Amino acid sequence: MKYDVRQLPLLSNKEIAQGIFDMRLAYEQDDLPVACGQFAHVYVPGKTLRRPISVCDASGGELRLVYQVKGEGTKIMSQMQGGTVDVLAPLGNGFHIEPGRRYALIGGGIGVPPMLYTAKQCDNPLIITGFRSASLVILQEDLAAQGETLLCTDDGTAGVRGFVTDLLRARIAEVDEVCACGPTPMLKAVAAVCKEHGKPCQVSLEERMGCGVGACLVCAVKVRKNGEEVMQHVCKNGPVFNAEEVVF
Amino acid sequence: MADLSVKVAGVSFDNPLIAASGTFGFGREYGEFYPLSALGGISCKGITLTRRDGNPPPRIAETPSGILNAVGLQNPGVDVFIREDLPWLKQQNTVVIANIAGNTIDDYCQMAEKLSETDVDMIELNISCPNVKCGGVQFGTSCESVSSITSEVRRHCKKPLVVKLSPNVTDIASIAQAAEAAGADAVSMINTLTGMRIDIRTRRPIIRNNTGGLSGAAVFPVAVRMVWQVAKAIKIPIIGMGGITTWEDAVEMLMAGATALQIGTVLFTDPYAPVKITEGLNRFLDENNIQSVTELTGTVQPW
User: Which of A206, A220, B100, B124 has the fewest CB atoms within 10 Å around its CB?
Assistant: First the structure.
């Protein structure tokens, strides 16, 4: 069986920036190992739908989920303390990281967390993160332990003022490939920079999700396969897609 | 262990729990959680004559105790289903129900003919999908149209024929009677209730299709009421569905008049729900010394 629902002991669940929480669950890599860029589908008591949260880290006996409180479900999640959390994981196809290649890892806002576990799989990655403002900046120390980090904010309150694409453009010649997660306009812009410089690009997409395993077909994304536009699904085919194939 | 088997239109199910169309794909994904033989049957994702890509996203929104969806019948088309999915499904030791939807009556008839030549166990006529522009629910909301499509498809269908009813009607009992009179072997009910949510910040509907179908625990009391009303009006069996979440709900739906059950939305909360509901149902029967689940059907004692 490829899928399982686990009851994982909740170790901690703390606010690490404005409205952004860091949930740590006791977890040992087992016969269903978590790969970077995969996600966990978290049951929220009283809610019909699970919340898909990308894996921030899965090393050191912990499954770490860093998420933003956006609505009722994530609000309930942020109030969980002690006991266990019902988690359907790991799900989806993550970033494909090959040894011997240098990667630029780009994270925007709440798209930054999956870049930590991804960075841990890379040799000397260049890590570029962007946020709206200083109050939303997360994970800088964790990321700095994995490679060179560059930080920017929209308003210049932390790091340089500007967008991740400005920083990427200046350094793209140094890397072989780019992996990105963040808001769709950012992904589109990152994909355009990569295309311009002839670098392959993997993007992690988000869409309102149902089952999480590819049965209900709600989290649709249009991709180009063999010259034809077809519907694929963030939960099963993604969340990571080849940027060249995504019809943004 | 009580006898959980049921029979609908001559087809035997090992237990009354059937995965509801649209929530279970063609079974492969949930087959990675448990053997599909744990289910009485699978009603496959609605198929159309040719491939459909469905509606643009977002296709889902959460609502109090439920969800709205507007997938728009994304599917690979009947021929791909028959060639690539049906042979695998038939190896899973569970009843396979093909759910068909069309733009025209002729679409439905052509699909019924193609499927009649396969080893699919049953055909479920989807005349209640609220999320497509042509066809779908427009066939399911008047007695005349239900009657004409059911009788036309009946002439082309050699398989047991289940008509899936829409709750978005004034008098569902008369619709069910029309389906029965036109040759349906059973009815399944209820499909989703049409609903809408609006994002107050953007003033945009959350679902790209503007409206969607409401399902989940929120619709359960409506489904129970409708099954109860229809059970009094027809003689053919009812496959009851609409928000069944627990084994207690399953018992309630059977008592209202259902012979078998479909469950859908709860799968998104708990993929193991059908297995747990079957276990709970079995326990309830044993504890009450009931030999067969069929003894529950229609046993509500109304005031």
Answer: A206
Q: Check B45 against A88: CB less than 8 A apart.
A: no
Residue B40 inside a domain? The answer is yes
CATH number at residue B290: 3.20.20.70
Of A218, A222, A229, the CB nearest to B59: A218
CA B102 remoteness from chain centre: 16
Cβ–Cβ below 8 Å for A208 and B33: no
Fold (CATH) for A95-204 = Rossmann fold (3.40.50)
Question: Three-state SS across B45-95?
Answer: CCECCCCECCCCCCCEEEECCEEEECCCCCECCHHHHHHHHHHHHCCCCCE
Decide: helix, strand or coil at residue A92.
Answer: coil
Superfamily of domain A5-91: Translation factors (2.40.30.10)
Residue B133 has pLDDT above 70, yes or no: no
Question: Top-level CATH class of A206-248?
Answer: mainly beta
- pLDDT for the residue numbered B2: 93
Tell the burial category of A140 from Cβ atoms under 10 Å away from its Cβ (0-12, 13-18, 19+): middle
Q: Flag if A217 and B32 touch (Cβ within 8 Å).
A: no
Ordered by start, the domain boundaries in chain A are: 5-91, 95-204, 206-248
DSSP state at residue B166: P
- The structure's pTM equals 0.95
CB nearest B269 (choices: A50, A230, A231): A50
CA distance to partner chain B, nearest, from residue A205 (Å): 13
- Whether residue B303 is contained in a domain is answered as no
Partner residue opposite B23 with nearest CB, options A212, A215, A230 = A215
**B36 assigned to some structural domain:** yes
Contact check, Cβ <8 Å, A215/B269: no
Angle made by CA atoms B77, B80, B86, in degrees to the nearest 5: 110
- In a domain, residue B265? The reply is yes
Mean pLDDT score of chain B: 96
In the predicted structure, residue B136 carries a pLDDT above the cut 70: no
**What is the distance between the alpha carbons of residues A82 and B294, in angstroms, rounded to a whole number?**
43
Nearest to A190 by CA among A74, B74, A181: A181
Given a contact cutoff of 8 angstroms between Cβ atoms, the answer to whether B250 and B281 are in contact is: yes
- Tokens representing A149 are 């980090």
Q: What is the ipTM of this complex?
A: 0.93
Closest CA to B165 of B222, B81, B120: B222
DSSP state, residue B28: T
